[in-house]
Write a structure and sequence with these properties.
A alpha/beta (528), B mainly alpha (359), C mainly alpha (306), A: 528 residues, alpha/beta, Rossmann fold, 4 domains, seven-stranded mixed beta sheet, six-stranded mixed beta sheet, 23 strands, globular, C: 306 residues, mainly alpha, ABC transporter involved in vitamin B12 uptake, BtuC, 13 helices
Chain lengths: 528, 359, 306
Amino acid sequence: MTVDDTTNPQHGVVGERRGTVLLDARGITKRFGEILANDTVSLTLRAGEIHALLGENGAGKSTLVKILYGALDPNAGDLVWQGQTVTIASPAEARALGIGMVFQHFSLFEALTVAENIALALPPGQSFRALSERIRQVSRDYGLTLDPSAIVADLSVGVRQRIEIVRCLLQEPKLIIMDEPTSVLTPQEADQLFVTLERLALEGCAILYISHRLEEVQRICHHATIMRHGKVVMECDPTKETAGSLARLMVGSAVHDLKRGVVPREGDVRLALKDLSAEAEGPFSVAIENIDLDVRAGEVVAIAGIAGNGQSELFELVSGERLSSSADAVTIGAVPMGRAGITKRRRAGAAFVPEERLGHGAVPGLKLSENLLLTRHSTGDGLVQGGFLKRDRAGALEQRIKTNFDVRMSHDDPEARALSGGNLQKFVIGRELDRQPDVLVVNQPTWGVDAGAAALIRQELIDLSRNGAAVLVISQDLDEIFEIADRIAVISRGKLSDAIPAQKLTRERVGLLMAGLDEDSGGAGDAA
Amino acid sequence: MRLELEKRPERSTLMALLSPVIAIALTLVTGAVLFAALGQNPAVALYMFFIDPLTASWSLQELVVKATPLILIGVGLAVCFLSNTWNIGAEGQFTAGALAGSMLPILLPGFESFLTLPLMLLMGIAGGMLWGGIPAFLKVRFGTNEILTSLMLVYISQLLLDWLVRGPWRDPEGFNFPESRVFSDAATLPALADGRMHVGAIFAVIAVLALSVVLLKTLKGFEIRVLGQAPRAGRFAGFSRNKIIVFAFLLSGGLAGLAGISEVSGSVNQLTPVISPGYGFTAIIVAFLGRLNPIGIFFSGFLLALSYLGGEAAQVTLGISDKTTRVFQGLLLFYVLACDTLILYRIRFTRPGVSAKGA
Amino acid sequence: MGAFESILLTVITAATPLLLAAIGELVVERSGVLNLGVEGMMIVGAVMGFAGAQATGSPYLGAVFALLSGMGMALLFGFLTLHLVANQVATGLALTLLGLGLSGMIGEAFVGQPGIRLTGIEIPVLSDLPLVGRLLFGQDVLVYLSLALVAGVSYVLFRTRAGLIIRAVGDNHASAHALGVSVLKVRYLAVLFGGACAGLAGGYLSLVYTPQWVEGMTAGRGWIALALVVFATWRPLRVLAGAYLFGAVGILQFHAQAHGVAIPSQFMSALPYVATIAVLVIISRNRILTRVNTPACLGRPFVPDR
């Protein structure tokens, strides 16, 4: 059978790409102010082909995709769809042509039902009952189980992605664009997705697959276009490359290797969580149940998990943004701190970096020197005296962090919102590392940060621990976790598994734990 | 032609300074058009409205008298708005302050000592704080929308005043007019110079200076700005949103109460059914026109006070309705808000279809 | 006419302006826009309704004037908050202050003039039925219109695609934009609808409730309408119930006085405002209820990044 040949890229022939040309983007250029997000980018997509679009954050992938989907106007360049030059002025026009998209950050409406969400993306004139029937049928055909009358707010991330995909499929698209579809899935959920994608390709659908995960690109994609700094740097057959060579093409220089160093033997417990529980604060929040964890001086402990399983709730309880019901639930140093506010915990030597940079870790409209005060106004740095701000000292400190952590800015002391994601993250983490804390708790340390900055941040976290601090990292990125963690625990539905030495764990095991499916541990979180 | 906004990477300092100026200019232009439509010579009308009141000593004093409550209330509201707390009931807190402070001279007219005035002022402040404390408490305790509750309390305070001056507090020797008894000298704020200007003006200056320092130089001011701009970051910094809501309401309520008792004791000298031409609402405009900066509010307070005087002057000399004053005030706030867009955005006009290709 | 029947008739008259303004604001807020300028749009509607009726001699044309002037005010609000992304709370306040000023200026000539009343319709036989005749079949057109609007808004919001789009825009404007919905267009239309309703509500005051022009005659009804929307947790039928409840509270003072209840009139006048606060407190105590129902994008500005 030839079916295997088309579905399995291993058997593909280099240079000879199969399928007729569906979409030809020629010389696409898009400028945002002074930044050239897309610089004469060209891309050819063929029917039946899973085409990877690779690149770091900020390489211009999202911009290109938005142009293809009609959500952005290009400044120059042509789009040729099935041999005809077209202007795609809106997503509606893109859908009319046969282009569908599954967004990275879901474009769903939380307060509406599954069927209502899907109806919004389809042309009008269909009865609701007929639509619900079609939804059931498509979800049966592709193994994507959905209840049309469920409210989206109540559904898990994996199910939400299914809605996006079913919504896309109901439009019977010729091209499906998928933006980082696996970033929120467990490895097992991702496997299911790959089966669906291969089946779609087999049916002649073109798929543009955006990712920075090289492993999965090599596994399912037939062709790859690699972007860097807004330009196409290379086209290739990903199966003929090594992960290392692909990574070098993406980053533009050799990938950074982290220096792990040695964990000091049996450091003191610096951060202890004991039977930490909290109720869900609202309909969109997760309850935390009986969490136990010790983090010792000298080690990095990572908490893996899929977004929305209680990470931000746990972070708030550990940081003191939210108080626990008992003082013993959180111990910092040797002092019970469960009932103490965040400022007291900071004074006890702890430091915290939240997931959201803008709006949580930093105030967008305040200058960096003022944002410095956010976490250090009462930590004995002399930035505030007798209730008065010492702006010159804050300025000097801002300069120090800027130099030590390579924070790049167009002019001195800008507002936080003017920094790029990576530079702001370096600042926000640098602000805490500069204190040389005894305990550091970081939520998603390199989310949306370019590879260079991510490597720098990860190295800093390891170095901090080796100098005697206890470091707790909450992350969704398994690559990151295996790079830096000495022990790994997994959070699922508000429960935390035991922390297990990283060498004893495989990705598959962590994946099962993330999905809450592991039998070995004797029930996640119930170890106490 | 289509109007599009392009976000600036940072706030434009230039536009932050220019925006009120542009807004005032636009208001004047609109005013000129309005006067022309009413059959007046726009130049003469604008002169009468905005310049003439500045040419006489008595009207300059009157300007200070009117600017005093506007500035006192305006700086308090600035603290509210900066912390993203929407107190729009300053008019009610003004009235409550006037009522509380007037209790002494009305109920105990015989109590005349050097303590009378300070006590009245303190009671006025307390009355304003009490009235401002209600929406703050409801917001913090139950999450009740403070915009609506603070506004409802305006109507309630005005009805309370109306009842008091027509009922229990009516002057027994007042021929049944709805007025309280006239305050004794010991209960009257001393005049400054020899006219209508009173000591309240000094309170306003002190409030401006004190709040300038607090907002720009202290951790409290930092806390107010952080919680106003990014509540989540404020919590991360260890600041309490609830505490700042209470703080802002008590401060602005207290200042409005002080303005109320100062106005009654220094200017009107008795309670009447209406004691304010809408100072509490006009002060909202004062606060925004002054860019929520106490020094800016000092100047915008005088401008809005001028609009009251100008309205009276234009009515007397030109027969233009003094209701135009409030139209001007409303327009001014509109233009200020529109111009503030320029601080964070550039405005571009594009023709649809052309932007897609070319360049 | 029995006492009970006459009370019910006045309740309807007092409830209708609240209902009109609130049902309009409900649609505005469902689309994610908070227009606090209801009071301003209403009072301009009141004065323009009066003026229109005087100029044309027809109270019906007066009502049209009221409606259009409310839309004009709403357009101003829409331009500032939607096109210029000005702060919605502040702009709504500005709209109220401007409306109070404008209406005072326009209405100065009308103070003390007798107005033209928009009377109830007369249906032969039906209107003369005992007990229910006047109540059900003798009301003015605007009463029936307000009830039809509740039914219409309820149907459109929850049974049609247009309503789905309005709710979607209020829930997540970025996603709606990504799906190709013109967020600004939907919001403009919603804001204009809200303005039309508020204008009409004002017109009802100067054409039916008390057919004359009195400065500040809306007396906070625009704000009470805003509170009603919160009280109703953004549901049309609950707005109906709330408006009639508040209508009843509002006319209590007249009937209390008529029956010689010895409470100062100011206390009775304050009742609707006290009741508003009480009702807001009661509804906000149930935080989950309000949080789930509040349109997620309410008051948040939207700038398309095109």
